[in-house]
Amino acid sequence: MEDVVKIASYICQRYQDQFGQRIDEMKLHKLLYFAQRESLIQLDEPLFSAQFEAWKYGPVLVEIRQLYKDDMLHESLSPESIKKLEGVFKMIFSHYAPKDSWSLSILTHGELSWQKARSGIGEDEPCSAHIQIEDIRKDAQRIKLRRALLKHFKFSNA
User: Fold this and answer.
1) pTM over 0.85
2) Are 20 and 4 in contact (CB under 8 A)?
3) What would the mean pLDDT of 97-122 be, rounded to a whole number?
4) Residue 4 phi/psi, 5° resolution?
5) Helix (H) and strand (E) counts for the chain?
6) Residue 5: pLDDT band by 50, 70, 90 thresholds?
7) Which helix (H) or strand (E) holds 54?
8) Best label site of 56, 58, 110, 120, fewest CB within 10 Å?
9) Domains of the chain: total
């Protein structure tokens, strides 16, 4: 597993390089969530051990919040880690990073892991319940199956 601060730093820097602007905090948290889920899809292992909280607008890594606000996300991810995780980052930056933060928030609200963590909590109520990695793994399996089916139907209809 990687250090979540290094992953967050890498996402911030790559976003700056690719889009020419600083990533906003909400988008950073959502991209971290999708990177965690994508690592489970592609590598069958969590990307980092930090746990998301199920906040009103989607998953949030509390330990990243203050570092982002203080502009302290400048840790380096090793070249070996970047190479190992390139498929994960490629998916995140091609599919999710171009979307606006509110669209990503809506997408995370469709995740069963976020819904389960917020079970019994009102829509506008604050929530600090942790999103369990086992539940993110279930979302990952659902997405993996959907991709396999889409690929199958795409090729069978070609």
Assistant:
1) yes
2) no
3) 96
4) -60, -30
5) 8, 2
6) very high
7) strand 53-55
8) 120
9) 1
